[in-house]
Write a structure and sequence with these properties.
6 domains; Rossmann fold; 50% helix; alpha/beta; globular; nuclease; single chain; Enzyme I, Chain A, domain 2
Length: 1225
């Protein structure tokens, strides 16, 4: 389509590919960009935004950019800001310069955000259209949301019980068990999420009953649109298997019986197909019922077996697979007659109708409760926005028209992860002709099904737009992230695994990854490797299970990479270098093994950074603390009380707990504790008495004070915070305990109060197997990182270990009494009143099978995400019993005649990533040595496939030997035979270290610490650096007071100074900064939550403006291209230059951050900004305070740059005073 802005010709030196170029400039219709992993989609998005601003003179507020996360939105703004700043520097046209500069001022408030954030703006602008109170509070805390839903349901359930209707009792009974009615509650809450993900929840709920109103199954929508197509596809696959069976044996007279068996069973399959096409379901049921499988013929003559053994085995494999698939169809759809299927559906109809009625009431009551409390949740934002956009006044839709006129284009990132409701909102915002939606994503990376993302929305447009129905499709297939070895390996796997049946999209030539980064050096060390732990060897007792064996095997491999200085390519330095720990990432499917990883890696001396060790409330330290809160609330709880007494807080042993129990065996444990105290005065009783006194004090405190203050008091009095620091993952545990205080504060800011309610919330989370994420801890050290596959999405790492690949997929969602689907609706099991047996309804089986395919498809896409995180080297870690068991599992697809493996091989409920990968690798020529014992179809496309890989089978004994090598050596002291020299021993024991002052300083000092040491203003060259007096303050044992223990409320000068430095660091210096530029920057930092409003208010904008109006400030702007700001440095100095009492030859590492310097060809000008209060009377005192610090900076720069520092400026911002220290006496 011709547009006003055709795609410009691409210059020869452009870095963008042709498809990227088209994605940047194409327009005039809706566009879908299918961007494979590592294809540069973010760069394309940013460039498209810039070109809209540049070529079309659009303003940034005429664009809506929707991102999946707030972090992505922030990154997008930062990239656009950088691109605009570069455009200003490069542009010669002053009008365009001014246009770009104006866009920078608009950027902080531009609509580059998540859809939720944008919806909030819509509501704030047009709330009056739907009579919504604009002073709502966002319900963002899971604590409050869950408790609120629980309370609404508890009240509503009581109302229904009081109505005393039999149908409600039947409903409750159908989804609950003998112990509780929580099953119905779980269903109501799950159903709420599904309903609210639809544009019209009540309409979706009403549609749930339609598939149960069936009279003739053969003409029903359920059968015609869902069951029949699925069964016909499966029968066609089975028919093909029999075709292969017959072709293997046909023509050989000795195998005539096998041929006849195949022909007979194939004929019956074809008969079933004909009856299905004619919709004669009773006949289909009869054919399935009468279908039997005779024993597979096996020739008895030895010579026939020797001659045709391989053919017989191949044919049997086809027949076994066909039999398995046919029985599966029978079990799902034809286990009972069509008439009985209809009866079950009709029997379930009143229960489903009642369920819909109850669900609607719940939605109404929950909405009313939120209105009453003046709250909205994220889902409300989207629904109210849709309602606003669809509201008509006099036949006009004012909000919809406003946004359709305002936005020239709507750009949507991660489009594969949106749901039906979000799609409808975007459709209402966008124009119909010409379309102005620009959607970017990769359906192969859609892994958020648990958030109800609907990848079929992307898939439908992918197919429609290929023929330009409603838009155009652009494919970005070039990968600029990974080595060719990683890409070929990934293509080999997914060419055989992914198709519309499992994966939901064809992995064809257009989907294959193409190598786009050709700068990696050629070397043969980067072939992906499979590390396979063999479980049946002689296993040391310290390898507790296969997971631990896999972890030891991984740790061993990492130590080898580090110790052997395995080289990777550094993209920044553009050269090969030795691998570091920080280059390595372990990707995990779940967090269940993280504590084991921590322990094993600690033993082998491998530094590890784990932000999410395990589920927050399931961590040991939190479980102990929750148990303590439970007994503070009510001590008459046996298990929590025993847990606390056994914990480090009290420290009783199991034998002591048993003795306490014997004091009063039949009563509550709390009563037994009190009796034990009455009857005993031993050491156990003393510990108990001390704890009981403390417990009573805490209980009294809890009645008066806040929950957060209670936790602070507990931490203070038990030293439990200090204790957990010594445990594995101590920093994370410490952070977890501190975060509990923040959780408590958040909870108490909600509409709920009290210790009991807080405990109730946690218990509900644990009951429902839900949890909160662990608080992140800052990790900047050189360490191996561990993260989930979901957490790694969008990231890339030089070396990736994909862990736990033998773990079976989690298909729990298909094992409940109900299943949901966005289109088919709700499938339920039916509890029969007489037999009390739950029967599958036909709809339940249909939805369950569809959900199984969706879950397996998502697992397949998770595998794709995991493999494509690797830049250079990929390790796949798993285990089998032994080598023979490995090949037996992997050879199941060896006879497959198509490149894509049969769906049955890819949809087993006990499958794992390793099973899938092995099936695809086994047919490759590299496996030739292992294929000799198996029949295999050697497909030409696989025979010539360029993928390379290695298999490493590792036995437990190999691991044991390696571990002994890597474990720290234990030094033993050989004591000579004969008498011990007592005098010598006394001398050793009374030995005094000759350099005691060295024990009072740390070998790592920051300049901000050392600046307090200097008092010699005349010592301008700073050699030696003389301290004013002995200083023993700068030791590692000296820790600041934790924030939560402090009472300080006012902002410190240091906090204000740090914030001012941040603004000075980030301020664009393309011209003299103006007030609005500084204000916009501060506002953006507030939006990013980099600054708090309290600190932002204290930043003196006037001082900053004053500085840039000074001669030196203007000089900085004029030479901004020579300017370096906030530059870190490190330098080794002899210890005796810093501390006069040092007598030895130790060195101390000095580190710091230089505020700024200008670097020219022949000189350097150094400056340091201070926000201190300045007066002429204090000038010399301030100079004395900072001279040593700045001379350290000067010394470091001169050594690093090999240039003289010509001037050292000390700048006092508030007083606008600039002093050159090199010209002061």
């Amino acid at each position: 389509m011709t547009t006003n802005y055709p795609i410009p010709p691409k210059a020869p030196n452009e870095i963008y590919t042709d498809s990227q170029w088209q994605a940047i400039y194409d327009q005039g219709t809706n566009l879908l960009v299918s961007a494979s992993a590592g294809s540069g989609k973010t760069a394309v998005l940013v460039r498209r935004v810039i070109e809209k601003i540049k070529r079309q003179k659009l303003s940034v507020d005429q664009l809506l950019v929707v991102t999946f996360t707030e972090a992505a939105a922030t990154e997008m703004k930062e990239r656009v800001q950088t691109a605009l700043q570069e455009a200003i520097n490069e542009e010669t046209d002053q009008e365009l310069k001014n246009h770009f500069a104006h866009q920078l001022t608009l950027l902080p408030t531009a609509n580059i955000s998540t859809l939720h954030s944008f919806c909030s703006k819509v509501i704030q602008r047009f709330f009056y259209l739907i009579d919504l109170d604009p002073s709502y509070r966002m319900l963002t805390d899971d604590t409050e949301m869950i408790l609120l839903k629980e309370d609404v349901w508890d009240e509503l359930r009581e109302t229904f019980y009081e109505e005393n209707q039999e149908i409600f009792y039947r409903l409750t009974e159908n989804f609950s068990n003998d112990r509780s009615d929580s099953g119905l509650e779980d269903l109501i809450l799950s159903m709420y999420e599904f309903a609210r993900a639809n544009p019209n929840p009540f309409q979706w709920l009403d549609g749930l009953v339609e598939n149960y109103r069936v009279k003739d199954l053969a003409v029903s929508e359920l059968y015609q649109q869902s069951i029949r197509p699925q069964v016909l596809d499966k029968l066609h696959e089975i028919d093909q298997m029999y075709h292969w069976l017959i072709s293997t044996s046909q023509g050989a007279e000795e195998l005539q019986k096998i041929t006849e068996l195949g022909q007979n069973e194939q004929a019956r399959i074809q008969q079933i197909e004909q009856e299905l096409l004619a919709d004669r379901l009773s006949d289909v049921f009869t054919l399935f019922k009468e279908f039997n499988f005779p024993t597979y013929p096996s020739p008895r003559k030895k010579e026939i077996k020797e001659l045709y053994g391989d053919v017989i085995a191949e044919g049997k494999a086809y027949r076994d697979q066909a039999k398995k698939e046919l029985l599966k169809i029978k079990e799902m759809y034809f286990a009972v007659s069509p008439e009985e299927q209809v009866e079950r559906l009709q029997a379930a109809l009143p229960i489903v109708e009642e369920l819909v009625r109850v669900e609607k009431r719940f939605i109404e009551e929950y909405s009313a409760k939120k209105r009453e409390k003046g709250m909205l949740d994220f889902n409300d934002l989207e629904h109210f926005t849709l309602q606003i956009l669809q509201t008509e006044i006099n036949g006009d839709r004012p909000a919809e028209n406003y946004y359709r006129k305002r936005f020239a284009e709507i750009l949507v990132d991660e489009y594969q992860d949106i749901n039906q409701l979000q799609e409808t909102v975007l459709r209402q915002l966008s124009r119909e002709k010409p379309g102005n939606l620009f959607m970017v994503g990769d359906v192969k990376q859609s892994i958020y099904g648990f958030r109800l993302a609907d990848p079929t929305l992307f898939i439908q447009k992918y197919h429609d737009f290929s023929e330009e129905h409603g838009g155009r499709r652009i494919i970005l297939a070039e990968n600029f992230r990974s080595r060719k070895e990683v890409l070929d390996f990934t293509n080999l796997i997914f060419t055989q695994l992914m198709d519309p049946t499992v994966g939901q999209i064809e992995y064809d030539e257009q989907a294959e990854l193409i190598n786009g980064f050709t700068n990696f050096p050629d070397t043969d060390t980067f072939a992906p490797e499979l590390l396979i732990y063999q479980k049946d060897g002689d296993v040391p007792e310290w390898i507790e299970d296969k997971s631990m064996g896999e972890i030891f095997m991984t740790a061993m491999k990492i130590r080898q990479l580090i110790d052997q200085k395995f080289e990777i390519y550094d993209k920044e330095q553009k050269e090969m270098r030795a691998v570091r720990y920080e280059d390595i990432v372990l990707l995990i499917p779940t967090r269940s093994n993280n504590l084991t990883i921590l322990e094993v890696f600690k033993q082998l001396g491998i530094p590890l950074a784990v932000n999410d060790t395990q589920n927050y409330f399931q961590s040991t330290e939190l479980r102990i603390m929750i148990a303590l809160l439970q007994i503070i609330d009510n001590p008459y709880q046996d298990i929590p009380l025993a847990a606390v007494l056994r914990s480090p807080i009290v420290g009783l042993q199991e034998e002591e707990l048993a003795q306490i129990r014997l004091a009063l065996p039949q009563k509550e444990y709390y009563q037994a504790v009190k009796r034990y105290l009455q009857d005993n005065e031993n050491q156990t009783a003393k510990k108990l008495a001390a704890f009981m006194s403390q417990l009573n004090e805490w209980r009294e405190f809890a009645r008066r004070e806040s929950l957060a203050d209670l936790l602070v008091k507990i931490y203070n009095e038990t030293a439990y915070l200090d204790y957990v620091l010594g445990m594995p993952a101590g920093q994370q545990r410490h952070a977890n305990l501190l975060a509990l205080i923040e959780r408590a504060k958040d909870y108490e800011r909600s509409s709920f109060r009290g210790l009991y309610q807080f405990i109730r919330f946690i218990e509900k989370m644990q009951e429902k197997d839900k949890d909160l994420g662990e608080p992140p801890i800052e990790e900047t050290r050189d360490a191996v990182r561990v993260m989930t596959i979901h957490g790694s999405k969008g990231l890339e790492f030089p070396i990736v270990f994909l862990m736990d690949m033998s773990k079976s997929f989690n298909l729990q969602d298909t094992r409940r009494n109900y299943v949901f689907d966005e289109r088919l609706g709700l499938g339920v099991k039916l509890l029969t009143p007489d037999t009390r047996i739950r029967q599958d309804t036909l709809l339940f089986q249909t939805v369950k099978q569809k959900n199984l395919n969706k879950l397996l498809s998502e697992e397949m896409r998770k595998l794709y995400v995991a493999l494509t995180r690797a830049e250079q080297k990929l390790f796949l870690v798993g285990s089998y019993e032994n080598e023979e068991a490995t090949y037996k599992t992997w050879s199941k697809g060896a006879l497959n005649e198509k490149i894509v493996l049969d769906a049955g091989l890819r949809s087993g409920q006990k499958d794992s990533f390793f099973d899938w990968v092995g099936l695809t690798l086994f047919r490759h020529p590299i496996m030739e040595n292992y294929q000799k014992d198996y029949q295999i179809n050697r497909l030409p496309s696989l025979k010539q496939h360029p993928a390379v890989f290695k298999l490493n089978f590792i036995e437990p004994q190999t691991i044991a030997e390696a571990v002994q090598t890597y474990l720290p050596a234990v030094k033993t002291l050989d004591i000579p035979q004969g008498a011990i020299n007592i005098q010598s021993l006394k001398q050793r024991l009374s030995f005094k270290y000759p350099y005691p002052e060295a024990t009072k300083t740390t070998s790592y000092q920051s300049v901000s610490e050392l600046k307090r040491l200097y008092d010699d203003p005349d010592n301008q060259e700073n050699i030696p650096l003389t301290p004013s007096q002995p200083n023993y303050r700068f030791t590692e044992s000296e820790l600041g007071e934790p924030k939560f223990l402090g009472t300080k409320k006012e902002l410190s000068a240091a906090e204000i100074g740090t914030a001012t430095h941040l603004v000075m660091q980030l301020l664009p210096l393309t011209e003299i900064p103006q007030r609005n530029t500084i204000e916009n920057l501060i506002e953006e930092l507030l939006l990013r939550q980099t600054l708090t409003s309290e600190i932002a208010e204290k930043i003196s904008i006037d001082s900053i403006l004053q500085f840039f109006d000074s001669p030196f400030g203007r000089y900085l702007v004029q030479h901004a291209n020579h300017l370096y700001r906030e530059e870190p440095f490190a330098m080794l100095l002899p210890a005796d230059q810093l501390f006069s009492d040092y007598q030895n030859q130790d060195e101390i590492l000095i580190h710091g951050i230089i505020d700024g310097y200008l670097e020219f060809d022949d000189k350097i000008i150094l400056y340091d900004l201070k926000t201190d209060y300045y007066t002429p009377q204090k000038e010399q005192q301030l100079i004395n305070r900072y001279r040593g610090q700045l001379y350290l900076y000067k010394d470091a720069l001169e050594k690093a740059k090999q240039k003289p520092v010509e001037a050292v400026y000390l700048i006092f911002l508030r007083a606008n005073q600039t002093i050159n220290l090199l010209k002061t006496s």
